[in-house]
Amino acid sequence: MTRKKHGADASSSSPSPQERAPQTGARLETGRNRTSRNGAVAFTIIVFAAVCALVLACAQALAGGIGLAALVIAVVVGILAASSVHIVMEWERAVVMRFGRFNRVAGPGLVFTWPVIEFYTVRIDQRVAATYFGAEETLTSDLVPVNVDAVVFWMVFSPKKAATEVEDYVSAVAWMAQATLRAAIGRASLAEVACRRDQLDAELKEVLEAKLDGWGIDVIDVEVRDIVVPRELQPAMAAGAIAARERDARMTLAEAEADISDMLKDASASYAGDPEAMRLRTMHLAYESVKQSGGTLVIPSAFSEGFVPEGGEKA
């Protein structure tokens, strides 16, 4: 069976867990207007008013007047008509129940239901939703309390499951994500949580996908936004990090010195059997020194005599 993955519900009648749970970061506000259902509500009101007016007009034509009974009948018929004709937005799906049992998923567009015997319990928003959640003062495996703030992007691919398998799937996603985050932090050390954030994201996504699939919800992505260590632990952790960096620097310097000593040994072995090569190397070093300092180099005559062949004349 192919999943229809379109989006997820971003609203709920009950307070969301991210509003009740303590957070380490603030929610991002984009300033962009949300879509509304004002047009669908206006359509329902218009249907109600039109049917009421039609019933009252019929009563006026048949009875020659509008009495209390006609008003009551007009209101009842208007309510039945308004509850039978619905507008479902493009991003929504209506879960229609008949006598309390699941009947069909309807929408988008104009949806008709039988009065009294059919009704739809919920409109499932199938757009992508972002749920913010956090884990405050959660202990890592090395017993360090951290505050972690994250966000999960999810969507409903099965309106039927989302309506029938879980009472409030929006809150359930937030609570499940928070519990999964706490469990993942408890299995890792502070260094793993801080340095292996991508692995933590992947682990959270895999676990949430497995748990939310039965509710008709698909997890698109999980992102850890912030990891905060308590202020009183920050100086000790900073000192430990500095000590670790100094140790690494000293080890690197020692390794470089060892490499240099090996190369010097090889060079000394090469120059040991060739005195003229040694003199040329010495002159080259002297030339480089003079070139960099811009001074004058005085070469002793005994040094230059080393380049004259035996029995030959000086140039």
Automatic annotation (TrEMBL):
Annotated Band domain residues: 83-241
Gene3D superfamilies reported for this sequence: 6.10.250.2090, Band 7 domain
The UniProt record lists the keyword Membrane: yes
Annotated stretches, region: Disordered: 1-31
Record-linked SUPFAM superfamilies: Band 7/SPFH domain
Origin: domain of life: Bacteria
UniProt KW keywords: Membrane, Transmembrane, Transmembrane helix
InterPro entries found in the cross-reference section: Band-7_stomatin-like, Band_7, Band_7/SPFH_dom_sf, Stomatin_HflK_fam
Stretches that traverse the bilayer: 40-62, 68-89
Pfam family, one: Band_7
Protein family (similarity comment): Belongs to the band 7/mec-2 family.
Name by which UniProt lists this protein: Band 7 domain-containing protein
Species of provenance: Adlercreutzia hattorii
